[in-house]
C-alpha cells in the first residue's frame, strides 16, 4: 500500500511532573506518513516541538515491536488505540484519516500515577509480581531440566498463553474500575497450570491478590473491557482461574 | 491470613456478590411461580392465591428462606456500594475522551445504577404489598357473597373451609383480632381464622382509578431495569466464582440471557394482565 501523507490535530495530556496539575494541549502536525507507526508520529511531533524550542512530549517506548510492554497511551478513548491485539508501537497512522483529531492520554489509575506527560509509574505491577509471581528454584548449578517433568500439551499451551502477558497495563487502563485482575489472573495462571508452579500455588495467589489490593487497583466487575483491549489477547478465563485458586487457597 | 482473605479482599467481595446474587435469582424463580397464580381467573383464583399467601407468611421453612432473602438483598446492596466506591477511588482522574462502548456492553457498565433502581423498586414494592400484608390494620379479609333464600348474605371465608357471616362482626357478636382471627366477643375465645385478602389488595392496587396505570407502567419499567441487571449479572456471578470452562461458558451465557428476558417478562405480565385484561 502506497503511503499517503495526512494532517492531524493532536490533543495530548501534558503534565510537568507527578505533583503538577496537567492539562490537554493541542498541536497541529502536518505531513504525517500513513506508513509511520504511532510512536514515530510522536517522534515527528517532538522534532517539531524541539525546533520550536518547546518541551517535547514524554512517552514510554522501548522495543517498538510489541513485545516489551513499555508503550502505553490511551488513544481516542482506547488503550493502545483503535485496533485490537496490538500495542501502540504496532499501531500505524493508516488507522487515521486526514483531518482527524486524536486524543492521547496516559493510563489513568490510582496505582499508576503520572510521572510526566504520558509516562506513568507501573512499578505496582512489579511489586505484585515480586509478591509471588515466580517459582522458587535452587540455582546452585544442580537444577533439574524443566522438561524432565511431563506437562500436558493442553496445560502447557494455556500456561504459555497466560505468560504472553507483557504487563503493559492496558487492562487496568481500559477497565472502568481500574482493576488489575487480568494481569494478576494471567500471572497466577501461568504458574498454576504447571506442575512446577503448583508447589507454591496457595501462597502465591494469596500474596499476589493481597499486594494487588494494597496497590489500590479496583475490583473486577466482569465487563470484559480488559480482554478486548489486551494486546496479547489474554482471556478472561485467567481471571476465573485466579478466582478459583484464591477461593481454594483461602479456605485451606 | 485466610480468614481476612475470605472477608475483606477484593475477590471475597466478588464471591459474596455472586453468591447473594445467584441466591436472589433462585428467589426470583420462587416468587415468580407463586405470583403467576395472579394470572388465574375463575371462582377460586382469589382463594387459592390467599391460601398461598397465608402459607408463605406462616410456614417456618419459608420464613427462614425469607430472612435469607432479606439478608441477601441487604448484603448484595451494601457490598455493591462498597465495591462501587472502591472502584471510583481506583481512578481519581478520569479520561478526557473514553470510548467505553467499543469494548463493553451498556448493562455491564451500569450495574450500580441498575442495582440502585432495583433497590428503590424493592422498597416500594415491599411497602405496597409486604408491609400491608404484615402490618396494615386495614388489611381486608376475604369475603364472598351468597344468596340464601333470596337474601344476599356476605360471609368471610375461614381457614377451616367454613364461613363467618360479616353480619356477626358488624353486630358485635364476633370481633376480629390480630387482623385475621375471629373471636367470640363475650367469651373471648378464638372461633375461626380468616384469609387476609392479598389478592384484592393486589388487584385494587393495579386497577386503582387514579394511579393504577402509573403503577403498572412503573412496575414494567422496573422489570426492564431488572432485565438489564440480570443480563450482565447472571453469567458474571459464575465468572466471579471461578466457574469458567469453555465447555459450559456458552451454556451459562445463553441461559443467563434467556433468564434475564423471560423472568422479568413474566413478572411484568402480571400487572399488565390485572390492569388491562382482568374484569
Automatic annotation (TrEMBL), chain A:
SUPFAM superfamilies: 2Fe-2S ferredoxin-like, alpha-helical ferredoxin
InterPro entries: 2Fe-2S_ferredoxin-like_sf, 2Fe2S_fd_BS, 4Fe4S_Fe-S-bd, Beta-grasp_dom_sf, Helical_ferredxn, SDH/FRD_Iron-Sulfur, Succ_DH/fum_Rdtase_N
Named cofactor requirement(s): [2Fe-2S] cluster; [3Fe-4S] cluster
Pfam families in the cross-refs: Fer2_3 (PF13085), Fer4_8 (PF13183)
Location of the 4Fe-4S ferredoxin-type domain: 156-186
Source domain of life: Bacteria
One GO process term, biological-process aspect: aerobic respiration
GO molecular function: 2 iron, 2 sulfur cluster binding; electron transfer activity
Similarity-based family: Belongs to the succinate dehydrogenase/fumarate reductase iron-sulfur protein family.
UniProt-recorded name of the protein: Succinate dehydrogenase/fumarate reductase iron-sulfur subunit
UniProtKB/TrEMBL annotation, chain B:
One cellular component (GO) term of this entry: membrane
Coiled-coil regions listed: none
InterPro entries with a match to the protein in the record: Cytochrome_b-558 (IPR011138), SQR/QFR_C/D (IPR034804)
Transmembrane segments: 64-85, 106-131, 211-234, 255-278
CDD domains: SQR_TypeB_2_TM
Keywords attached to this entry: Membrane, Transmembrane, Transmembrane helix
Protein name (Swiss-Prot/TrEMBL): Succinate dehydrogenase
